[in-house]
């Protein structure tokens, strides 16, 4: 069911889908890892390649920041709440074509988190990992220093739910949603960009909204 729905979404996506057999084969290969597609409230759609992600509560959640930092730290929810807080309202755009307007996010701006740990300004990038043990993402240091990139702890004024990647997720406002890694567990400051889960499957490393994303021979809607 999930696979058929996702393929249907691709067919109706903003960029359209070519009909050639070769392109369809490429789409099928790109979607092969998808395990679940579950609609959730507010117009969002929930994707996961893991059939079951262990839930973490505000009490047992931890975010590890490591690598090229002066002060490696593991943050609890309370410690994240004690850092300067940032809120913003922006559209949430998926590369498959759907969009949710005016989503309210709150949390710690990623630059503030990096400053709290003394991130090396000469480091090139971040490697970001999910506590589900599967998803990874990356940002250049310049991208990570944007004020519209959040370690998000709230959504619409409430804690981020598990289905939306909570209790803490990344929110990279100017990029497509696959860069906004769910179930955030670790941030490592590193020397070079390491392609994340979806990039290794053909999606663009730099996923600015409005640009065509995905492999040249695989339409991604």
From TrEMBL:
Residues 54-198 form the Oxidoreductase molybdopterin-binding domain. InterPro entries: OxRdtase_Mopterin-bd_dom, OxRdtase_Mopterin-bd_sf. This is Oxidoreductase molybdopterin-binding domain-containing protein. It comes from Actinocorallia aurantiaca.
